[in-house]
Amino acid sequence: MKTMIIIGGGAAGLMTAIHAAEHYSVTVLEKNEKTGKKLYITGKGRCNLTNNCTPEHFLTQVVSNPRFLYPAILSYPPERVMGDFSSWGLRMKTERGNRVFPVSDHSSDVIRVLTDEVKRRGGTILLHKEVREILTEAYNEGDDQKKRVTGVLLSDGSVLSADVVVLATGGVSYASTGSTGDGLRFLSDLGLAVTKLYPSLVPFETEEKVVRDYAGLGLKNIEAHLIVKKGITPKVKKDKELAKEFGELLFTHTGVSGPVILTASAHLASFMKQNGLSPDYRYKPGELTLSIDLKPAMTEEMLKNRLEREKDSLKDKELVTLIRGYLPKAMVDEFLRRAELKPERKTGSLSGEEIGRIISLFKDFRFSVIGTRGFGEAVITSGGLSTKEVDPKTMSVKKIDGLRAVGEVLDLDAMTGGYNLQIAWCTAYLAAHSSD
Q: Do 362 and 301 touch, CB atoms closer than 8 A?
């Protein structure tokens, strides 16, 4: 039986091992003290392991190179992933947005099921095994000189031979989990094209320091618009909306986070890649604007009618009382400051023009985004091994026989909602079943 070494004991590596054990003698090399360290913190420790959607919908949620994933998602769609996990003993539930979680809400159960299944099928998992280099040799095929893998060199100087090596080392986000870019370095050393890396699904930093006063505050059912100013790069001829997201936003000590922001950050990463901006580019105030519609369910006319009614019913009350009926207490002072209205003003004294300013703020409460929180807080890495280097039907690296790449080490990324783990599962499935 041929031998396969899988570098990385995370989601993609373990899934590859499970399916490859049918055809190979499989060994997983994990440099950490345990497998699945990044899986453990996924979904705030609950592990949103896939999205219960069709392959067609899945592809709409992939930001980078969706067409490349067409063979993978058709071969191993969410329905099959869930069926396999169920057969391995994991009980699951589907929540809002078709997000799939273990019933226990414990990511450790997902990791346990994966590692147990690898061992049940005869695979070997070796911990504290750090790879230093992927070994290759040249050979001739007719008049052509080619390369093939022969194994790996470990950090302790020992060599492990293999017919196939699968790279499943992830990107560079959450480095504390072991995603330190080792695999991308191996690929570069082998002369393969690695695209520039950007943090994605990551919180934003804002110019406005008032966010510190809001830290920990969540806003539900808002609509966030991310707008880039014309001229920021030569390609941007007019103000452009990069993202429009409805849902929940969370204030932090340095800016904003939450589902709508993480999703918007995926669009921002794509924009930065396309426009040649560096991953750590710092935006000048006004270049990148977050506009929050605090009341998306209400039109301006509806707000006007309601405010005018309350102007009469609350005429003797201070403005601060009126605005507290619409916003969390922590935001009221800043809201009135921006509206250029004193909190102690009587509601009944509001002019039509002042009501208009209040309405405008409800529909367009702005913050100036100056950057992201970087790879230290990014859920995923956007960028990686160029998909041009890989056969989308097998996950095999075209220039080196026996080398395959899966999961986040590839230049593939998607929105929140279980889609990025689905990328890990389906690319792993193809790599496991490849016959090259």
A: no
Of 295, 200, 329, 207, which Cα lies nearest the Cα of 256? 207
82-114: pLDDT as tens digits: 999 999 999 999 999 999 999 999 999 999 999
Count other C-beta atoms under 10 Å from residue 327's C-beta.
18
Q: What's the half-sphere exposure (Cβ side, CA atoms, 13 Å) at 283?
A: 26
Tokens at 219, concatenated: 């806003």
Query: How far is 5 from 167, CA to CA, in rounded Å?
Result: 9
Cβ-proximal residues to 229 (8 Å cutoff; 6+ apart), any chain: 236, 239, 286, 287, 288, 289
Question: 173: phi > 0 → left, psi -120 to 50 → alpha, else beta; which?
Answer: beta
Write out pLDDT tens, residues 162-188: 999 999 999 887 666 666 789 999 999
CA–CA separation, 294 vs 361, rounded Å?
A: 8
Is the pTM of the predicted complex or chain greater than 0.85? yes
Return the closest-CA partner of residue 80 out of 397, 430, 320: 430
Phi, psi for 390 (deg, rounded to 5): -125, 140
Mode of pairing for the β-strands spanning 400-401 and 144-154:
parallel
The whole-angstrom separation of Cα 83 and Cα 436 is: 27
Q: Which helix (H) or strand (E) holds 382?
A: strand 380-382
Residue with tokens 């590596």: 13
Going by their DSSP bridges, the two strands 62-64 and 218-228 should be labelled as: unpaired
Bridge partners of 99, per DSSP, are: 51, 95
Q: Please give the torsion angle defined by the CA atoms of residues 195, 54, 259 and 173, in that order, rounded to the nearest 10 degrees.
A: -30
Q: 398: Cβ–Cβ under 8 A, 6 or more apart, which residues?
A: 389, 390, 391
Q: Which residue has the tokens 């505050």?
A: 217
Give the tokens for residue 47. 């592990």
Strand-pair category, 204-206 with 365-372: antiparallel
CA distances from 287 to 207, 227, 231, 304 (A): 11, 8, 9, 31
For the chain, counts of helices (H) and of strands (E):
14, 22
